[in-house]
Amino acid sequence: MNRWPVLAGALLGLLASAAQAGLPTFELTINDGHFSPAVLQIPAGERVKIIVHNAGVGPCEFESTALRIEKVLSPGVSSFVVLHPLKPGRYAFFDDFHLDLPQGVIEAQ
User: Fold this and answer.
1) What are the structural domains, with CATH classification, of the chain?
2) What is the pTM for the complete model shown?
3) How far is residue 103's CA from residue 14's CA, in Å, rounded to a whole number?
4) Percentage of the chain modeled with pLDDT above 90
């Protein structure tokens, strides 16, 4: 049995994890449609990882039309998104389950 494809796949997975582990990382908490922080400042021109925590009692959806991302989280769940390098500017995001509440902003500087 040739184990090289399995070993090569495992190695590629480790390399991908290591590459993401080195990304600048930021945290965002969503609690029933409220964002903390409401303005998330990140460096412009760099890939970044945002860890999203759902601290609310119901599901939430971290979504940004401008950034073309969406992530649905059950209560108590954390996940992450990786953003491509952004130009300096402000990029709105929202919780699709709480459209009546204020949006948050990612500010790339």
Assistant:
1) 23-108 (2.60.40.420)
2) 0.78
3) 36
4) 80
